[in-house]
Each structure stands twice: as C-alpha cells, then as structure tokens.
Specification:
about 350 residues, alpha/beta, 16 strands, four-stranded mixed β-sheet
C-alpha cells in the first residue's frame, strides 16, 4: 500500500513539516504513518514559499536528517501543483472565479489520487484559505475510500509566532519571531494531529463519474440529485433530451422513442411486456409498438423509411444503451432510478418514477 499525503497550503509551508512529523515521528503516536509521496496544491505565492523555505533553505532535508525514517519520502518541485486559470498560476485566491478554479483543481487531484486501491490518501486541511480546506475535505468526502483520512494539525500557541519553526526537533534548536526575539526551543514544542471524521459518498458515484474529468460543482450536483426524489422531464423535440433536475442525457431517435413510450405508459399506469427470446417474431404489445414507430418517425433522419419491430434483441439493446448513457450522464444511483426496468408494482417493464414526478414536454 502506497501512502500519499496531500495538503493545501498558503503562506505557511511549515504546515507540511508539522503534519509529516505528527503522522510519522510523534513518539506518542502508536500507528505511525510515513508518506511515500507528498503532493501540495497552492497558489504561486504559496509555492514560492515552499521552494524558498523548505527546499532552498533546507528545512525539509534537515527534517529527514533528524528523522531517518523519512529519508525515502518523495517531495520536490514536481509535487507542487499550482492553482491555474487559463494555464497561468494564480498568485492568490481572490474572486469567485478563482474559487471555482481552485475547487475543480482539488476535485481533480483527489479524484486522481484515489483511483488506485493500493494507495492510502491522507488529506490535511490545515493550510491555505478557509475555502481551500473546505473544498479539500469535501472532495475527499466525494471520492474517499475506507482507508483514506482527513486531519488538521495544531501546535503549541507560542510557536505559532515563530518564523523558523518547522517541527519539534530531536535536539535543542531555538526559534524566534519576526523581531528575532527567541520564543522557545523547538525540541519542547508540541504538535497535535486532529483526525476529522467525514462521510464517504463515493458509493453514490458510478465508475464513470469517478474516472471522468468532472468539475466539483457537477459532481456535487449529481450526488445532490441522487439524494432527492426524482423529478423526470422528457422533452419531445429535436434535441431528444431526458432531464433529471438540471442534468440531462441526449438519446438517439430509437432510444428516445422507447424511453418516451415508457414515460407515457408510466403516467397512464401501464408497462410493456418484455418480448420472449424463444418465440420467433415476438414483440412488445402491438399498440405500444405502433406508438413507438409514431415517435420514431418524428425523430428519425430524413429520407429513412423504416418501420421497426421491437423484438427481444431490439428491446434488449435499447435498454442496455440507455442504461449506459444514463450512468455516464446521471451517475449510477440516478440511472438505477430512471432506466426502463422490471416493475414489481405494475408487472412488465417500464419506468419506476412516481407518475406525478414525470413531465412530458414538447
């Protein structure tokens, strides 16, 4: 299992070393956790601080010398990830647009860091602006697995003012404030790691949503819709869209024809019979097949002269492709609620959405 530490930071790079010490070096901690890799998301100003104070001035190398168990940690410039807008690193997070860019970056990074089951991700929300910590925690709620954790690091109050304090040292090391007044000895500092419980919502996302490059707001919207009573809108126009809340899926003419038929039947309290695989020429009910073809004639390509028999193979293929498209557009939970499926209440196959929650628009 590879251990990955992910942090958001601002102008205080010591958050990184303090968190590593609390996880891997604190003698009071029984279950020591040593990261194999450390990733940091920050603004350009924050990255400059990390490069200057941890790398150029050697604080991180000193920490590895002081605590040899950290010697193999991978952490250098390529693990520093800037928040970017239009391919340019942001100096600071100042506007709503900057917040959205930062949220999407966090969402994408945590999604990528949780793709493989043989990793354990620990997310620290101690640094950066408050919104950065919030989004980092929320992103791990969206994608986090059983082995993943969130924490916040705290230090002894007087050491918060020290400009050259990075971690409790094994030997004496005096630290001072901005006025070069000695505050105390880093050897005596205390650092606490507060692990934060969080709700894991990954199960509400299907594999497509987990792997696809969706923005933060889009993923939240998918989960939010999946937790609400389904409101379905089927728009019978040239775009052939099925809406669940504000999310939509566009279907092909044939897919849309069977889906609109199923929605109309659900409103009327009816379902379709699944054609038999073993009876040659068996189809859905003739009156329903007639309505299917009426809808299809409206949406098929011009010049196509075709009347379709909805037999076992045709019906099966339509249901499979609709389900695949719905899972990609709506996520697994919503797809399971809105696809054409066996109806235990009415018998036959159709929609299970409450009839008065279905809007048929033209």
């Amino acid at each position: 299992m590879k251990n990955v530490l992910f942090l958001v930071t601002g102008m205080s790079p010591q958050i990184i070393t303090e968190t590593v010490w609390a996880l891997a070096c604190d003698p009071k901690r029984n279950d020591k956790w040593i990261p194999d890799e450390i990733y940091v998301l920050s603004t350009q100003k924050g990255i400059n601080q990390i490069q200057e104070r941890l790398f150029n001035k050697g604080a991180f190398d000193r920490m590895k010398n002081d605590y040899p168990q950290l010697i193999n940690i991978k952490f250098d410039d390529k693990f520093l990830i800037p928040v970017e807008l239009n391919n340019k690193a942001l100096e600071d997070i100042k506007t709503p647009e900057h917040n959205e860019v930062m949220a999407n970056a966090l969402c994408g990074l945590i999604r990528d860091l949780t793709k493989h089951e043989d990793t354990c991700l620990h997310v620290s929300i101690a640094g950066g602006r408050k919104t950065m910590g919030y989004y980092a925690g929320y992103a791990l709620s969206l994608y986090g697995r059983a082995q993943d954790k969130i924490s916040h690091v705290l230090i002894t109050e007087e050491f918060e003012r020290a400009v050259n304090f990075f971690y409790p040292t094994p030997t004496s090391c005096l630290v001072s404030d901005r006025n070069e007044i000695v505050i105390g000895d880093a050897k005596n500092a205390e650092v606490w790691l507060a692990e934060i419980p969080f709700v894991r919502m990954r199960s509400l996302l299907d594999k497509e949503s987990i792997l696809n490059d969706r923005g933060f707001s889009e993923v939240v919207n998918i989960i939010e819709e999946s937790l609400q009573p389904v409101r379905l809108r089927v728009v019978n126009n040239d775009e052939r869209k099925v809406f669940v809340g504000d999310i939509f899926c566009k279907l092909s003419p044939k897919e849309f024809s069977i889906y609109l038929l199923a929605a109309e039947l659900r409103v009327a309290g009816k379902t379709m019979r699944y054609p038999s695989k073993d009876i040659e020429g068996d189809t859905i009910e003739p009156e329903f097949m007639q309505r299917f073809n009426e809808i299809y004639q409206q949406h098929k390509s011009q010049g196509v002269e075709e009347t379709i028999d909805v037999d076992y193979d045709y019906f099966s293929n339509l249901l499979s492709t609709i389900k695949r498209k719905f899972k990609k557009a709506f996520g697994k939970n919503l797809a399971d609620k809105t696809v054409i499926q066996k109806d235990s209440d009415y018998g036959g196959f159709g929609l299970i959405v409450i009839p008065n929650s279905i809007d048929l628009d033209s």
